[in-house]
Amino acid sequence: MLLQNRPVVRARHIRPVRVLHVVKELKGGGAETFVRGLTRGLADAGLDVRILALYPDGLRDDERATLGVPFRALDRRGRGDIAGFYPRLIAAVRDAKPDIVHAHLHAGKYAGRIAALAARVPNIVFTEHGDEAGGSLRRAVNRVLHPRTARFVVFSESQRRTYAARERVPLDRVVAIPNGVAEPPPADRDRLRAELGLAADAFALYLPARLTAQKNQTVALQAFAAAFAGDERARLFLAGSGPLEAGLRAQVAALGLGDRVRFLGFRDDAARLCRAMDAFVMPSIWERMPLALGEAMLAGLPVVTSPWEGHADFVLDGVTGIVAGDGSPRAFTQALERLRDAGLRARIAGNAREFALDAFGLSACVSRHIDLYAGLTAEGRAT
Asked: Which CATH number is 255's domain given?
């Protein structure tokens, strides 16, 4: 079911609460970007929020200076660093004196929650940013940690139900809070297109993602070649790096696409590049809640996506995007061909931006987290 638009809930007054976010590092993919944006937003809203990175933070000096929240990095050397690391981690959590520990990703899920329990933190929250392999040891650890975790955060209602059943936790302790995404920064479209070598009449499709099997760029290339055969105005930009780059370049050559497909490599301004594009494509095999999708919607780009599980929580065919009938190259080709309808493009782009302001808007995400924390502290007072 598509998430319903609703006005942003303004943060209500809650007693002073300190929240410690535990992450592996601060420079990386979508989850790390999300944590930086969320904590900055929480701090701007008046919460006492801090970050504890278990490994070196990975930030440049200028990025640290603009982080906007107190943080500490424990500089763990690797998973083999156990005997010396866990006492330091527990001591760091105790030193922070948090009312809530909010853990993220694998490192937070295990080391972060274990330390929070050892430090006797009143409330533990864990955000599931993606799926990971199970195993008997992890299942055993989760049997101890899950009952002591006050809330689990996922990104959609469909994921909420699936997660509760899979992890065997009560549904009322699983909360759906869509990722918050900052709107892509303004940019001079003509200048940006000139930097990319785009002609004024070119039609530019954009696929920013790590070059991996999950992101399925190979289907995008096949579909682009078929849908825009002979259209010399059409261009496809792939932003990102990854292990499949050589194979994808070979595929571009084999399809005879030449310079109509551009590999941009890793870009720390990937969101800004939305301003130069005409459409966003996402042929992924699976997703949870990709930040790039929110950035594209907020930038007013029409979206073409594969039907990954849970997509309908964000992209409704013909309303907020174009959804391929299945995961095949043929179906994605047919979806791309619908982009030729300028009226459809304009309509879904407008709908998507309106929807994204609520579903992906950073202010809405911050407000929902404040409500989550307020509810936990209220429960604490009640008991």
From this structure: 3.40.50.2000
